[in-house]
Design goal:
- The structure is a single chain.
- By secondary structure, the chain is of the alpha+beta class.
- The chain contains four helices and four strands, in the order E-E-H-E-H-E-H-H.
- The strands form two sheets. A two-stranded antiparallel ribbon has the order 1-2. The protein has a two-stranded parallel sheet with strand order 3-4.
- The chain is 32% helix and 18% strand.
- The radius of gyration is 16 Å and the shape is globular.
- Strand 1 and strand 2 form a beta hairpin.
């Protein structure tokens, strides 16, 4: 799971904020972005969450907020992988991304 279109502020996970009330209203029918209901994710839904310590777009504190919202998830169905030296683009362009991130992820989903 990646926080591409979510913005984490004040301990909540919301949809993308267009930066002004007019565009938010146009896209969401309200002035602020809606909050994602992370509690609606089934507890037994397989999730593989990988994040990096050098990521400025989805920083460690953001991911901690996300993890707090799924703390009751079935631990056999949730893998959290932290790569201290990974930044946002390393998950795509990293020379070892296949071995470090994608091979274990594929194996996880094959088993679930």
């Amino acid at each position: 799971m990646t926080i591409y279109n979510a913005v984490i502020r004040s301990g909540t996970i919301t949809m993308y904020d267009y930066g002004n009330i007019y565009d938010n209203k146009k896209h969401y029918g309200q002035l602020t972005p809606p909050v994602y209901d992370m509690g609606s994710i089934p507890k037994d839904f397989p999730m593989y969450l990988s994040y990096g310590g050098q990521d400025e777009l989805s920083d460690v504190q953001d991911v901690k907020t996300l993890l707090e919202s799924v703390k009751d998830h079935d631990p056999n169905k949730l893998v959290v992988q932290y790569k201290e030296d990974y930044a946002h683009a390393d998950f795509i362009f990293g020379v070892n991304a296949r071995e470090v991130v994608y091979d274990p992820m594929i194996e996880f989903f094959k088993n679930h």
